[in-house]
Design a protein that fits this description.
mainly alpha, 53% helix, 278 residues, elongated
Length: 278
């Protein structure tokens, strides 16, 4: 299930953040002294900030908590104990937690804002490209293939394919708002709407360890609507020829006329069958 994998990935990142800070605190044992606690605290804040610069919010929380615990246990007297003898060390431990969380969160938001700006530009280009294919009257298979490639780029997927077959009952489905319904399996289904009904699905295969963002799924839904419009256009009957105007010549159907048949033209004064009237 994608949601379970995402939760497991966040737990692993939090554990990695805790382990990094605790390892730094333990590594500072060779240099520790009551006068160097501030240096140790700065190193731990830098470690937390580096996780934030990578956009890892769960690791930021783990690193800040690990920094406070590791600093208290390894770097403040009495050593190898969670007791703190000096009030300044207590203030430093609290500051490690608060400052680490704040600076790490600011770094995560800064990275997210930059990613959102680049992803928005990519999304606009993708939607414009799909609309151009639809407007130019490309073949349906070309439009569906191009939309699938654009969804892969926008949502950072491993693979995306279109299918008109019924879905397995337990497959998660992406809603119109970008939310994902609970389900099982390694794929997600993105519905394709045409003429008021679901006519198919894009099957999304995420990359291992990559969490699908809701804004990316929203853009993927817009692209799927472009594919639905292409399907609707191809499902419509061909247009009728325009009716002749007042000045246009009437269209006379061409018939094969057999002499002597009722449809053959009669000469004035001639009887049917070609004999002259008596």
């Amino acid at each position: 299930m994608p949601l379970a994998r995402a939760a497991g990935r966040r737990a692993l990142l939090a554990a990695a953040g805790v382990a990094t800070s605790v390892a730094l605190s333990a590594g500072w044992i060779a240099f520790r002294s009551p006068q160097r606690t501030v240096v140790a605290a700065l190193l731990l804040v830098t470690a937390t900030l580096s996780w934030g610069a990578g956009g890892r919010r769960a690791a930021v929380v783990g690193s800040a908590v690990g920094a406070a615990l590791g600093f208290t246990f390894f770097d403040t007297p009495p050593y190898e104990s969670f007791a703190i003898a000096r009030p300044p060390d207590l203030a430093t431990a609290a500051a490690l937690l608060v400052v680490g969380l704040l600076t790490g969160e600011l770094a995560v938001r800064f990275v997210s804002a930059r990613r959102f700006g680049s992803s928005t530009s990519l999304a606009l280009r993708s939607v414009r490209g799909a609309a151009a294919l639809l407007a130019s009257g490309e073949e349906l298979v070309v439009v569906l293939g191009a939309v699938a490639e654009q969804i892969v780029a926008v949502a950072a997927l491993e693979r995306c394919t279109y299918s008109a077959d019924p879905l397995p009952p337990a497959m998660p489905v992406v809603g119109r708002g970008g939310e994902v319904s609970p389900g099982l399996g390694g794929q997600l289904a993105l519905p394709v709407w045409a003429l008021g009904e679901v006519v198919g699905h894009f099957l999304l295969t995420p990359r291992p360890g990559v969490v699908l963002r809701r804004d990316a799924l929203l853009v993927a839904g817009i692209l799927a609507d472009q594919a639905g419009a292409a399907l609707a256009v191809h499902a419509l009957p061909p247009p009728l020829p325009p009716a002749p105007g007042p000045g246009d010549d009437a269209v006379v159907p061409l018939l094969r006329v057999v002499p002597g048949s009722p449809a053959a033209p009669h000469r004035r004064g001639a009887a049917p069958g070609g004999r002259a009237a008596g």
